[in-house]
Amino acid sequence: MAANLEDVPSVDLMSELLRRMKCSSKPDKRLILVGPPGSGKGTQSPIIKDEYCLCHLATGDMLRAAVAAKTPLGVKAKEAMEKGELVSDDLVVGIIDEAIEKPSCQKGFILDGFPRTVVQAQKLDEMLERRGTKIDKVLNFDIDDAILEERITGRWIHPSSGRTYHTKFAPPKAPGVDDVTGEPLIQRKDDTAEVLKSRLVAFHRQTEPVVNYYAQKSVVTNIHAAKPPKEVSEAVQKALAS
Questions:
Q1: Is residue 128 part of a domain?
Q2: Fewest beta carbons less than 10 Å away: which of 7, 88, 155, 163?
Q3: Does the residue 110 lie in any domain?
Q4: Which residues form the Adenylate kinase active site lid domain (predicted)?
């Protein structure tokens, strides 16, 4: 249920109104970000989201939300999880289909972490085709595995906001605490060299064919993700302007 607008501060109303006016002139975009863990997708997606007024669809979060909301698809997903089964591709695509109905997805979306396989990409394309739309651009964050190890193992996160830091590249003002709230930072359990190696093997085996699949549709742009974030941002902007 929408909040009573009388109780919303004028400043918030005005800023939302200005945001919507700005968004109305933006082109619609349906994007997929592909890249191994630590390639910078997480840094770039909020920038792209704000610039183009898109919604960010992370399939893991969406599945958890659908389960919590007890939507028909969420109930099915919960059944599969409780049996220790993988949630089917059809179910995940169904949850994406539901999610893009939201007003925040009106101008399009960024998909991150999906599709991971060619079969998933095909099912996603079929669903979008039924809606009379398609993927406009796939940004492939291309980076050498050796660089990723240094990036990943130095990464620290503020759990409630998702702000990320790095001991070498983007340290917090005070070691171990978030710049904004002063709350402690954590390191994800999978941000270790051993876990990274197994994730990279899976990424190269499963997801690189997805890039080839979309390359045949001429929608892939390779982004040199080893560059500093500002330069990567510029490359992303250039790719999305074309």
A1: yes
A2: 7
A3: yes
A4: 155-190
| Whether residue 102 lies in the annotated active site | no
Respond yes or no: is residue 116 known to be catalytic: yes
* Size of the chain in residues: 242
Q: How far apart are CA 20 and CA 232, in angstroms?
A: 27
Say whether 64 is catalytic: no
From the candidates 29, 30, 76, 116, give the one annotated as an active-site residue: 116
199 is a catalytic site residue = yes
Q: Which of 29, 30, 123, 155 is catalytic?
A: 155
The DSSP result for 141-199, as a single string, is EE--HHHHHHHHHTEEE-TTT--EEETTTB--SSTTB-TTT-PBPB--TT-SHHHHHHH
Q: Which of 78, 107, 137, 199 is catalytic?
A: 199
What is d(CA 20, CA 6) in angstroms, rounded to the nearest whole number? 19
Which CATH number characterizes residue 81's domain?
Answer: 3.40.50.300
Of 64, 137, 163, 188, catalytic: 188
Contact criterion met (CB below 8 Å) for 69 and 62: no
pLDDT in tens, the chain (242 residues): 455 788 888 888 888 888 888 888 889 999 999 999 889 898 899 999 999 999 999 888 888 888 888 888 889 988 888 888 778 999 999 999 988 988 889 999 999 889 989 999 999 999 999 999 999 999 999 999 989 888 888 889 999 888 989 998 889 999 999 999 999 999 888 788 888 888 899 899 988 899 999 999 999 999 999 998 899 999 999 999 87
Catalytic residue among 30, 41, 123, 151: 41
Distance CA 185, CA 153 (A): 14
Tell me how many domains the chain contains: 1
